[in-house]
Each structure stands twice: as C-alpha cells, then as structure tokens.
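--- STAGE predict ---
source: upstream dedup step, 1 unique chain passed
mode: sequence only
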Amino acid sequence: MRRTLAPLCTVSLVLLITLAAGLFLRAQGPAPGSSALSIPQAQLLQPEELVRILKVTEKEKPTLLQVGSRVMFSQVHIPGSEFAGPGSTQSGIQSLEDTVSALPKNRRIILYCGCCPWDHCPNVGPAYKRLHELGFTNVKVLYLAHNFGDDWVSKGYPAVKGK
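--- STAGE serialize ---
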C-alpha cells in the first residue's frame, strides 16, 4: 500500500508547489515587460503635449483609448476618447483587441489610464505591450505621474465629466 501512495503523494506535492509558485508570481505584479515602467521613454507623452495635439485641427486626430476601469471612464475622461477595457485583465485586453481590430497598423494611438501613480499602474503596460504584439507601430502612452485627477483634471485640461 505504501508503494502505491508514494507516487501519488509526490505528484500531489509537485502540484501544490507549482500552484503556490504561480500564486506567488501573480502576487508579484505584472509579467516582466508589461509594467508601466517598461514602456520606452520615447513613447511617453506629457499631458501638455497631448493638449497641444488635441488642439491642432488635423485631418486625422489620434485614436485615444482609456485602458483603466469603466467606473473611472464614466466619472471623467478625455473628450473623444473611448473606453477600451482595463489592460490588467484578460477581458480588458480582449476588449482592446476588438476596439483596434479595424484600425490600420500605422494608426496613431494614444493610451491612458491614470488610476494610480505611474509606477503602480497595472493597465497601461499590458495594453501597450499587446498593441505592439498585434503589430501597431505608432502607439504612445500619456504619462500621468500621480493619477488622472491630479495630472489632468485638476490642471484644467479638457475633460468630459460623467453624470
């Protein structure tokens, strides 16, 4: 009887260790290369730069995508932006993919979130990474050091407030 239980106990122990390691890694934050800090400096837009871009009457304005929470978007967002789903969730990434599916790969896209301080944002990094994996070549991210309220709304930049 002991001989038949030994392999079962070994398999159970290996499965338990694997599960614990997975939970530990998930608790450590986003996968390498998908945090906001992994976005190249050259791909970041300062709020003042985006305000200038939005004021210019171009033939083709950039596609603005909010990749934070639906609640945040409903409360206040940049005029002309679309809610694309939270970049930190699989369903949010799927929503982002659906939103950009008909766009040309060279389309100018600007992502933003602002849910929390930049170095803790769980959304912009994965969204930026996924767009690049899909072949989009003209993606920028609005750099909001503290959050959307402090770095955009309180500075009087254009915002559409919810009801």
